[in-house]
Amino acid sequence: MNPFSYGNVLTAxxxxxxxxxKQDALGYTPVNRGGDTMQGPLNTQxxxxxxxxxxxxxxxxxxxxxxxxxxxxxxxxxFQIGGKTIGPIxxxxxxxxxxxVVGDIPVFSTTGGTALADSGISLASxxxxxxxxxxxxxxxxxxxxxxxxxxLPTPQPVALGGVKSAAAPPHQFGxxxxxxxxxxxxxxxxxxxxxxxxxxxxxxxxxxxxxxxAAMVDETGSGPLVFATNPTVALGSASxxxxxxxxxxxxxxxxTAYVQA
Length: 261
Prior knowledge:
Elements: H1 12-26, E1 70-73, E2 76-81, E3 84-90, E4 93-95, E5 116-117, E6 130-133, E7 143-146, E8 173-177, E9 183-186, H2 200-206, H3 209-215
Parallel strand pairs: 4-5
Antiparallel strand pairs: 1-2, 2-3, 3-4, 6-7, 8-9
């Protein structure tokens, strides 16, 4: 009986036989739309102004990506390789894998100057106090070297790379730099002066006779400080004065000791 007769329903064996005959004629197994594995290269038509030859509609990311998978979301294109997800590739930015690359930095030659972010890159251990920069006083391949003065911008009254300068106000000295990089100034206090004799700081701050007497080291007598104009002097019982020379009858302060002419 002809299996293709009207109203005849093919059995599973008949369907299998027909498919096997078709595959023999084609020389390959047709791709199953329900899911299949290509056994040869897949070539698509060239893209045109009407559309691309190959399209991946945006959707959700796989819950557990497998190496070799490629998918698209609204954030960009992703692919899985080496157990790591690469992506999204969108708006000219490439986000690299999260694994570390010790002692080297991956280079992407086709990014067209766009940003490259890799959350896992680290650099090999270096000696302390070195920076990664171009050669001193010129251009070239960056390398680790010591910081030099030419690496810093010229100080200006405005911020330049975090370095600032300012003119000190009259009679003030620089005291430090605040958290914003601004130099701070203040008039020095008496306590900031060093190298003075003992008790001199107290006299400079207070200015009393007692403080001056405490600071002096070769004084005679005691009591308040006396100046030359209209002084008030309290003489003790043991105080002495000079004896005038013969013939001197002036008002100089002198004793009444007998002077023989």
